[in-house]
């Protein structure tokens, strides 16, 4: 169901009704039906937004940050359907690929950051202050805890958790909970699997996660 906003906040782009607060600067016209863009939001022309998204006071499509001044190839920030982005979130444009991507159902809490060329898969959650380094891949149904961060090029499988203030580097199979600085694996995320995975997928991922723990050294 699409919520109806006051007429003073409604705009039409083609046949799509979207809602943009008058204090926001929105340069893109590629916005899906039913999307609401709240006060004091900036969205650059290099952003594509899906249907029924909610964006509150974020900055989306800022140039990707890189200390060596990498050449920008003109890619897009692509945001799927039913994504919620809260206050002070920043999302950078890609520098080395064609997209910085947020898939359907992602939820980004206040002051989180998505670096250039990152990929957040379906229904990934960034808690307040979480920072996703450039080129990182965050799997389906992952939960990134308060003020945690990933090193550039990090890869987290589906259903992973990085605990509050954790710093994750490297690659992780699915359904692993990580914590600490540097983050270390502490357990299998069986609660996440119970909530979201099919029974067949859950059994397979638990087996793979148990194998992962069995071959790791205690201090790794």
SSE layout and pairing:
Blueprint: E1 10-13, E2 16-20, E3 25-26, E4 36-37, E5 42-43, E6 47-49, E7 54-55, E8 59-62, E9 76-79, E10 84-85, E11 90-92, E12 99-102, E13 107-108, E14 113-114, E15 119-120, E16 125-126, E17 131-132, E18 137-138, E19 143-144, E20 149-150, E21 155-156, E22 161-162, E23 167-168, E24 171-172, E25 176-179, E26 184-188, H1 190-196, H2 199-215
Parallel strand pairs: 2-4, 3-5, 4-7, 5-8, 6-9, 7-10, 8-11, 9-12, 10-13, 11-14, 12-15, 13-16, 14-17, 15-18, 16-19, 17-20, 18-21, 19-22, 20-23, 21-24, 22-25
Antiparallel strand pairs: 1-2, 25-26
- Low-confidence stretches at least 5 residues in length (pLDDT < 50)? 1-8
| Spatial order of strands in the largest sheet | 1-2-4-7-10-13-16-19-22-25-26
Q: Into which percent range does the helicity of residues fall?
A: 10-25%
Main sheet overview: 11 strands, mixed
- DSSP summary: helix tally: 2
Topology pattern, helix = H, strand = E = EEEEEEEEEEEEEEEEEEEEEEEEEEHH
Class by SSE composition = mainly beta
Describe the fold and architecture.
The protein is mainly beta and 220 residues long. 11% of the residues lie in helices and 32% in strands. Strands 1-2-4-7-10-13-16-19-22-25-26 form an 11-stranded mixed sheet, with helices on one face. An 8-stranded parallel sheet has the order 3-5-8-11-14-17-20-23, with no helix packed on it. A 7-stranded parallel sheet has the order 6-9-12-15-18-21-24, with no helix packed on it. A hairpin with a 4-residue loop joins β25 (176-179) and β26. It is globular, with a radius of gyration of 18 Å. Mean pLDDT is 91; it is low at 1-8.
